[in-house]
Amino acid sequence: MSRPAVPGFFRHLWLLWGLRFDIGLNQGPGRSRLLAVAAFLASSAPGVFLGLTFFALMRVRTIADSEVWPFFILNLLCFVTFSVWVTWPLLSAGVDDHSELSRYAAFPISPFRLLIASTVASLFEPRALVFYAPLTGAALGFASRYVLYMPWMAVVLYVLFALLCAAWSRVALYAVINVLREKHSAEIMGGGLALFLLAASFIPPIDTSWLTAVGEAGVGALDMSIIVNATLALSRVPPGLFGDGLANLAWHRPRVAMVEAAALLFFTGVGMAVAYALLMRFHRQAGRAGGQRKDAKDSNPFATTRTRYTTLVTREALDLWRNPRARLLASVPFILAILLKLLSGRDLFVFVLGGSADAWLMGGLCIYGAVVIASTFSQNTFAYDGQGFAAFLAAPLDLADVLRAKNQVQGAAALGMAVLVALFYRVYFGFGTVVDVLCAIAAVLSVVPVLLAAGNFLSLYFPVKFHASLKRRDKIPLTASMLGIVAASVGCMPFGWALKLAGKEGPTWATAGMLVLAAGLNVALYRAVLPLAQRLLERRREVVLRAVTRE
């Protein structure tokens, strides 16, 4: 009997992309595919608005008739799009894709083909459609105002730019997971953060004095040489090759555009080679690390716990502390703050928001840190610690206490994160009043109860599977992700409303009191719905157990 033929390259891609689509939608028995596809489209919907907005911006007469602004906007969007793509694994701690080779280990396909499939498939995820929507709209608006020589070359440049972003996003992702795999990942990330802070202190801040001139005399007072130099600088980095290529097509210089297309292809190839090397290094380490990993310490942390509930809280705190993803998430707000100061971003916020700028910035960073910590673990509260839920079922424990302990630790971690970020902002920037700090902490106290309440129900109705043999977790269903975003938005509304009422004069004690009142109401709401979640946990315990432990 002859062996069946191995699928060809394009057949492999078709099968893998279809499987990734099903995994992304988290299809399973009883799940509505129509609802999952609707959630996919809904999560991509903001991209349509962004694309149309920048398409209209490029057709505004003042910009379209300028010899500088269209090219500056294009090159700036190229740089911003690339930067967001590359830093997204860090900003979102999206480190679950390391299982790509493990997931398809039994498939008759080479690891390099798997890398290509996952890289190209990442271009069609909802977040990707949102990321490159502004640049897409701006490029179409540019093309509608200029006659492009060889329009097909513009399409080639666009595809190569998208592949460049995807390739270097893989590099960032696999670099992060290699760090997280290391035994001393916390020390490595802490040292890296310290070095980043030290290096940033030697870089002179960007001159923002032009903001004052623009504010007093309008855009006409702006020295256009600044915009021209920025445009040229942005066109000389790899992401800017797309915008510069479109400009050369508009100027009927196709040979230069072809050279830039070749350069985009070269840098994409370099990114893919680096990503492949990092990914294979990770899996070689994972294969060697088999049973040698030790989590036990010489001292027993449970020796001093006096009650069963304090033991549960201690266990949850230790699990969260030792979770590499939690360490990665904890570093993000500090990195964002350093970048904000390095780019003189606070000056821009002061120009736009006046006396409320520090409250907005401090509160935004605190809320971001709290949201990523609370939502990441509360929406997967029964599986982020592996198969710990099975141990809880086998132990003489009340599951209501388990859920309450998890919520307490997750809420305390989010609040502690917010306090550290607020103190760091006050010391690092040297701005921010007591009222600003109080508003930021009260905003976090308002959003965390909403996230915990939503996370409890999402964990019960959308339990995420943990595969012990492959050491990976499936992705959170798109519907659950959308509901989690809605919950975070609802929790953040009091902060936005309070600072909007404060205006440019800045928040007052009344603003802080309003946020404290909102936090009290949300805490009361959380306590009111917690008994319902605990009762549902008792009813759905077997369903949750099968979902989070099945192979």
UniProtKB/TrEMBL annotation:
Q: Where are the transmembrane segments?
A: 34-57, 69-91, 103-124, 129-149, 155-176, 188-206, 256-279, 328-353, 359-377, 409-428, 440-464, 476-497, 509-530
In its UniProt entry, what is this protein called?
Answer: ABC-2 type transport system permease protein
Keywords attached to this Swiss-Prot or TrEMBL record, sorted alphabetically, are:
Membrane, Transmembrane, Transmembrane helix
